[in-house]
Amino acid sequence: MMTLSEVANVLNGEIIGEPSKKILGICSVDNIKPDCLIFIFNEKFMDKVSFEYSNCCLVLDINQKNKLSTKLDILLVSDPRIALSKISAFFKNAPSALTKNIELNVFSGKNVKIGSNFYCGHNVIIGDNVTIGENVFLNHNVCIHNDCHIGNNVYIDAGTVIGSEGFGNVKLDDSWKHIAHLGKVIIGNNVSIGANCTIDRGTIDDTIIEDGVIIDNLVHIAHNVTIGENTAIAAKVAIAGSCFIGKRNMIGGMVGIIDHITTADDVVISATSTVSKDLKLPGTYTGIMPLLKHNAWKRTALWITKLDKIVKFLKLKKI
């Protein structure tokens, strides 16, 4: 529980109403609960707020200050979405099964170094020579393989595997021979990784997740990949080996990126796209085509890339 005044201090907000009002949590405009904060991201949602719940508090953009006609308490902030991200953690209870007593929950290898304020769930496995920074949260069944490094302020959700053996193989006659992966996984600071993700170790060099990266559930990052800082990756993305993803990329759900691809900084890749060539300039990219026999797909793709030239030619010919 917090008072409205305490919430305002966290959010650097301006109160219109009673500073001592008790705030028990956060609710949506579709499911209003008493003594809660209601974040309004768009003016059209104001009509959904019932004055029956006069003990709630609306959190609004400060630019809406002169448009208010409600008698509810108000907290004005510069950006309601950012305000929600800041205050939501104050109302979230850590799962009761998580503990600071790592002896009860962790199967730990040799020469493991763990920083302060470390929390973990059940059945967490940490291999040999692993380094973990401060303020790290490993949920149930997380597995950190040998020699990996995890920075500060990192959250890894349940079932995720860090440092698994990569899918590097060579064909010899009619059989496959595996290449042992000798690299590590290096995870920077302020990184969030969702549930049931797999991040493979490098073959020789390391797989690197830079500072500020956020990764959704069910993502696979293969060996020798580098993910640039502050990149966001949605669910079910698969990034093949030896890719270099630039800074501040936004990769939509179910995107597939083939091996040895490089993307520029500030690239956005639309959901379900397939990336088969380098993206050298910032911008939004979309690549969705029907499934065809490969040779037919290549012919179709070739003509699609030339459509603008064909249209210009036809206009010149006035056909």
Helix coverage percent of residues? 10-25%
For the biggest sheet, the summary is: 9 strands, parallel
Characterize the overall form. Answer: flat
Mind telling me the CATH superfamily name of the largest domain?
Hexapeptide repeat proteins
The CATH class of the largest domain is Mainly Beta
Number of domains: 2
- Side by side, the strands of the main sheet go 8-11-14-17-22-25-28-31-33
Sheet-strand content, in percent, reads 25-35%
Rg over C-alpha atoms, rounded to the nearest angstrom: 25 Å
Q: In the CATH hierarchy, what is the architecture of the largest domain at level 2?
A: 3 Solenoid
Number of strands: 34
What would the CATH topology of the largest domain be?
UDP N-Acetylglucosamine Acyltransferase, domain 1
**What class do helices, strands and sheet pairing give?**
alpha/beta
- Tally the helices: 4
| pLDDT averaged over residues | 89
Low-confidence stretches: none
- What gap, in angstroms, lies between the N and C termini? 72 Å
Report on the structure:
With 319 residues, this protein is α/β, with parallel strands linked by helices. The chain has 2 domains: 2-91, 3-Layer(aba) Sandwich (Udp-n-acetylmuramoylalanyl-d-glutamate--2,6- Diaminopimelate Ligase, Chain: A, domain 1), CATH 3.40.1390.10; 102-285, Hexapeptide repeat proteins (UDP N-Acetylglucosamine Acyltransferase, domain 1, 3 Solenoid), CATH 2.160.10. The protein has helices at 4-11, 80-87, 294-305, 307-317; strands at 2-3, 14-16, 22-23, 25-27, 36-39, 57-61, 73-77, 106-108, 113-114, 119-120, 124-126, 131-132, 137-138, 143-144, 149-150, 155-156, 161-164, 169-172, 175-178, 185-187, 192-193, 198-200, 207-209, 214-215, 220-221, 226-227, 232-233, 238-239, 244-245, 250-251, 256-257, 267-269, 274-275, 283-285. The strands form 6 sheets. A 9-stranded parallel β-sheet has the order 8-11-14-17-22-25-28-31-33, with no helix packed on it. A 9-stranded parallel β-sheet has the order 10-13-16-21-24-27-30-32-34, with no helix packed on it. It has a 7-stranded parallel β-sheet with strand order 9-12-15-20-23-26-29, with no helix packed on it. A hairpin with a 2-residue loop joins strand 18 and strand 19. It is flat and about 75 Å long. The N and C termini lie far apart (72 Å). The mean pLDDT is 89.
